[in-house]
Structures are given as C-alpha cells and as structure tokens.
Specification:
The complex is a heterodimer of chains A (210) and B (210).
Chain A (H helix, E strand, L loop, with lengths): L1 E2 L3 H18 L14 E2 L5 H29 L7 H27 L10 H12 L4 H23 L5 H24 L21 E2 L1
Antiparallel strand pairs in A: 2-3
Chain B lengths: L20 H23 L3 H4 L5 H26 L11 H4 L12 H25 L3 H29 L18 H7 L4 E2 L14
The chains are: A mainly alpha (210), B mainly alpha (210).
C-alpha cells in the first residue's frame, strides 16, 4: 500500500486541491506571514488553515531530524544506533516530501509558503530532545512528535472539505502511523497497541506558527 | 477542523442513509475486515506459528491484529445498524482467497507472514480509498482510523519478514521494554515510501464479492 508515489505525482493532485482551496479560501488578509515571521493560523480559513497547520508540523519534523544529527555531531547526544539513525534518515525524507506537498497547496492558492513550525509542539519537543542524552530519549521524543502529527492528520480528515486535500491527508496519515509503530517496536513496546488510530493530542488550527 | 479530542472516531452522523453509496462502502469495509478475522484464525492455527521456536512478538502481533480486525467489524457493523442496515452476510471473498486453502502452503512462518501482509495491504488500501469516497464525516473518520492501524500491522509484518529473511529473529527475544536492535535494512523494508497509495483496494461497492 505504501507505494512509489513521488512528490511530482502528488503535487499534481496538490495543484487540484490548491485550485479548490483558493476558491474556498477567504482569508481577507494578504498571506500567511507577518513581518515578525509569526503566523497565526486562525487568520486563515477552513481547509487552507488545516493545510498550513499540517505543513508546520511537517517542517517541525524535518527540523527535528536535522537537530538530532547536529546534537550527535556536537556530542550532546550519544551516537545513534544504526536502526534509529536509519529511521531518522527515512523519516526526514518522508516529512520533507509531505511538507513539499502542503507547500504546493498553500503557494498554489496564492499565499506565501509556510516556513515556520508549530510553536506549541516545538516548545514541548525541544526540551525532550535537548535532555534526551541517549538514543532512547531521542526515540521517545520522536514518538511524541509522530503521534501528535498522526493525530492531527486524523483530526484534519474529519475537518477537510476539499477532496484532493482529504485524499492527500489519507495518504500521509498511515505513513505517520507506520513511523509510530516502528518507534514503539524500537523502544520494546507493543508496536500496534490500539485498534483505532486516535485524535488525542492533535494540534488545533489556532496554534501559532513561527 | 476539530480541536484535540473533539472528533469522535467511530460516530456516524445522520447524513448517512440506507441505500446511499456510503452504506455500500461500509458493507464492503465490514466484509473485508470479516475476511481478515478469518485469515488470522487460520494463521494462528499454523504449527509453525504456535510451536517452538516460538517468536513471541510475532504471535503477539498476530493475536493483536485479529482482535483489532474484530473490533473494526464491530465498528462498521454498528455504523450500518444505526442506519437500519444489516452486516454483510459473508466475508469478502477476494480477501479470504489471499489465504491458501491448501493449508500445506501455509505451513511456514514465512508463508504466514506473507499471507498476513497481503491481507493487511488490501484492507489498508480499501479503507484509505473509502476515506476519499465516503460523504459522511463520521464514517470517513472511522475508515481513516482503521486504515492507519492496518498500515501499522503491515509495516511491522514487513519488518518481521525482512528479519526472518535475514535470519535475525533472535533480536526479538529480548525482555519486554528493552530496546530492540533491528538491522537497518528491516527499517527500510517497513517504511517503503512517503505516501500510501491505495493500489490494491477492493472495489468500494463490492461487499462480500460475487
């Protein structure tokens, strides 16, 4: 089921989504970013606000993977064992693809791309990574990140009205949950503990991006 | 979009009515999960799974997946019952056919894992496809919540298959709660791509199949 669908293919669908989102969007503003670099999602409407939120979470995931490698280089975190290092590489590639797709949606709607990250989750995640110390702490921090991201996608699926954006979310949500299962397994926990994916912990569109 | 915890997964809204395409899609979903329950009954009866050398995490996953599929059947049937529609009479035949009727072809752990992965792939794809087709938001959220869990089953099955193929099943033998030293190649096998593509989905109105 997880196929070789690449970013180009997906952006074609994204363009369709963006066209519809552009029509549906009535932001009344001049874009998503203020001069401070802070974006308040509640200045956007409907599906576009959801797309921006999802992109900000994907940006955070990419940044977290990069930060982890930097912490290892600096000696703030012990060297990652090969399976976790492989996970970080793969997860970063996936999240970059996801972020690129949502960026295509947002910019095709005539708005500036979202370069910031979800600040509420970043505030919670950063200390977890800083204090991780060892690879188990790193894996636990990534489990938190992936769980929240997956929950937000599921919540988005209940809120999106544009079908292309809905299908995009439905295509990404399982991948985030695959990441969760792998991290659970790595940590020695049951990899699939629940019969239903959950929305607990989902970030709301009122979050600030910065 | 709904805020954290607002979306009630599994609740079906009033827009769903008997005879609408949503009902057909839900009947197909129920039939697919019914077939999955039957498949796991067969897997868990295979001596190579239950006899020594026992791979406890593999058995745990197979048992959990069977429970999950049973819960999914109940959720889909509940959604149908709320609209005055009964459950499908029989499991989906195409999914049931993924389990070799000649049990001698299901005698090894590898054969069981391969068949289980095939079942999960079709189930995950069918439910992901349903997300983009269902009109009712509650039904859509239910399908997404189920699709994500099937994707998790599939990811872990892929990993176990890769582990078995490399002769590395011993890494699963550690005490519960201790980190698992997975070979990096198994992580790559479990996470094949950034987007899930519903290429193997059953036709949405198929029901139990002809």
């Amino acid at each position: 089921m997880t196929g070789p669908l690449d970013r180009r293919t997906f952006l074609a669908a994204a363009a369709g989504a963006a066209a519809a989102l552009g029509v549906a969007c009535s932001t009344g503003g001049n874009g998503t970013e203020e001069s401070t670099g802070i974006t308040r999602l509640d200045r956007l409407d409907g599906d576009l606000a959801i797309a921006a939120l999802l992109q900000s979470l994907e940006n955070l995931a990419v940044a977290s993977c990069e930060a982890t490698r930097e912490f290892v280089r600096d000696g703030r975190i012990e060297a990652l064992p090969p399976p976790l290092a492989t996970y970080v590489d793969l997860a970063q590639a996936h999240h970059a693809e996801h972020a690129g797709t949502w960026n295509g949606v947002v910019t095709s709607a005539g708005l500036r791309g979202i370069t910031g990250v979800d600040l509420a989750l970043k505030t919670r995640l950063e200390p977890m990574l800083f204090r991780a110390g060892d690879h188990l702490g790193v894996a636990t921090a990534f489990l938190e990140l992936e769980s929240v991201t997956a929950a937000t996608y599921l919540s988005a699926i209940g809120g999106l009205t544009n079908n292309a954006a809905l299908q995009m979310s439905a295509s990404i949500h399982p991948v985030e949950l695959e990441h969760v299962a792998l991290l659970n397994l790595f940590l020695g926990r049951p990899p699939v503990p629940d019969a239903f994916a959950r929305v607990d912990g989902a970030r709301p569109v009122t979050d600030t991006i910065g | 979009m709904a805020g954290p915890g607002v979306l009630a997964v599994g609740r079906i809204g009033p827009a769903l009515a008997a005879g609408t395409p949503d009902v057909s899609i839900l009947r197909t979903a129920s039939a697919v999960d019914r077939a999955a329950v039957g498949a796991y009954d067969a897997f868990l009866a295979v001596e190579a799974v239950t006899a020594p050398p026992l791979h406890r995490p593999v058995v745990d996953l197979l048992e959990a997946a069977r429970r999950h599929h049973n819960d999914h059947v109940a959720a889909y049937d509940d959604a149908l019952a709320k609209r005055g529609v009964g459950p499908p009479a029989t499991p989906n035949r195409a999914v049931a056919a993924l389990v070799p009727s000649d049990r001698s072809r299901l005698a090894s752990l590898e054969a069981v894992l391969a068949a289980a992965a095939a079942v999960e792939e079709v189930a995950a794809d069918t439910f992901q496809q349903a997300v983009g087709l269902l009109d009712d938001v509650g039904a859509r959220s239910l399908a997404a919540a189920v699709a994500g869990v099937e994707a998790q089953h599939l990811a872990v099955l892929r990993l176990y298959r890769a582990l078995l193929g490399s002769g590395g099943m011993a890494v699963l033998a550690g005490p519960e709660g201790s980190p698992v030293r997975l070979p990096p190649a198994t992580i790559e096998a479990a996470l094949p791509g950034p987007f899930a593509e519903p290429a193997r989905a059953r036709p949405p109105g198929e029901g139990s199949g002809s």
